[in-house]
Each structure stands twice: as C-alpha cells, then as structure tokens.
Amino acid sequence: MEIFVLAFFVLGYLVLAGADIGVGMLLPYLGRGPEERREVIAAIAPFFLGNEVWLVASVGVLAGLFPQLEGRLLSENFVVVVTLVLAWVVRDMGLWLRGRLAGARWQGFWDGAIVAGSWGLALSIGSLLGDVLLGIHGPVALLPALVVAALFGAHGLAFAALRLRGPLRDRAAVLSGGAGEQRTYALTAAGLVLVALLAGLRLPLVPGASGAWLTPVIMAILPFLVASQAWVWWTFRGRVTGPSYL
Question: Does the pLDDT of residue 18 top 90, yes or no?
C-alpha cells in the first residue's frame, strides 16, 4: 500500500505539473509578445498551485514512508535537488511578479525567470530519473535529462493546445496536427508515467515503520485531494478567453 501511495503522488505530479512546466519552458515560442505571453500563462494560472501540492505530498510521503530511500536520493543527488528547489522558487516568482508592475523590461525579466525556472525543473527531474534508471552521474547525466525535458515540453504543448485559441492554439498544436490535442496529451502523459514507473522498478522501495499509522491517514485525505483537483479541472475546462490575474 505504501508503494501505491508514493507512486500515486509522484505520477500525479509528473502528469499534472508536467503540463505547466512544459508551457513555461516554451513560453517564448508560444507567446511572441507581452500580451500573448500573458494569455499563454493564463492557460496554466488556475492549475499550477494545485499541481505543486502533489510535489509537496510526494516529498512528504517519501520522507514519512521511505526514509532510507529519501536519504539515499538526497545524498547522491544533493546538487540536483537544490537546483530543483531553486528552479521551483524562481519559476513561481516569475509567475507571481511579472504582472505586478507595468513595463516591458519588468515583465520581460520575469518571463525569463519563468522560462529558466521551468527548464531548471524539467532538467532536474530528468537528472533524478536518469540517475535512478541508468545510474548516470556528472555531465553525461545531461543527456537523459534532455530527453525527459523534451517529454515535458511535448506535454506542455499538448496542454496548451487544449487551453488556448486562435494563433496561440495553432502554435501549440504543432504535435497534434491541429485536431488531436486530447490524443497527444494522453500520449505524452503516458510517456511521463512510463519513465517514472521504470525508474520506480529500480528503486529499493522498503517502507519504514511509520507506514502502519501514516498510510491510513494519507488514504483518508486522498479522496479530498482528488475531488478538489477534479473540481478545478472541471471549472476551468474551457479554453482561455483572455489574460488572467498573473
């Protein structure tokens, strides 16, 4: 049961947050000017905070249920983990601050922070998965990280094609042939799930002693998390009609 709980949160994060990470990575391609970029960001605005809950939950479950594995991953990938956290902070700063003041320089700077932070997240996650799957360290680890980052980018394009309209949708639909956004989104989501599952099969998933009481608590909370996520997706299921609050 503990393994199921960890897999559920990790896979949920990769599929859900992978979309807004991919959109952030490709922000300069999707939005060619300040107003277009703001509309592109509106595509992920209702979701990105809720998606980050899955990352926090994944780390909490890892620390609470698999303390030995957490220690191993942190000790062997300390620089990567610190980079991931910094990239997360930088991206969120960009999302929150870009619209707080007017001016092309201000917005351009924070748009750059969104792009850099999104790439940092994708490459850090890719490095972690590459380490687990292939045991690769050092500069060579950039190769599997780039593969995973490309998968994030494709997932982001598919999500943007589902959410945007007009010329922005046309740019995002480059992988979908103009009409297959849902199919493309499902395929890229399946790709992220497959990579994560392959990595999970190579991990020593030995639960700690706290699982006996912590797992029932998590299982009791789980339906509320899923219901709230489903409510957000249902509420914002339509295409973006204009800029958001970000």
Answer: yes
DSSP string, 222-239: HHHHHHHHHHHHHHT-S-
- Cα–Cα distance measured from residue 32 to residue 111, given in angstroms and rounded to the nearest whole number: 12
- Token pair 């000790």 is found at 75
**Contact call for residues 41 and 160 (beta carbons, < 8 A):** no
* Helix 48-65, helix 78-97: angle, nearest 10: 160
End-to-end CA distance of the chain: 39
> pTM for the full model?
0.90
**pLDDT exceeds cutoff 70 at 208:** no
Three-class secondary structure of residue 210 per DSSP: coil
Q: What is the dihedral of CA 32, 33, 39, 42, to 10 degrees?
A: 90
Q: How far is CA 159 from CA 58, 186, 219, 237, in A?
A: 23, 10, 29, 11
Which token pair is 8?
């559920």
What mean pLDDT do residues 159-186 have?
A: 86
The answer to whether 39 and 164 have CB atoms below 8 angstroms apart is yes
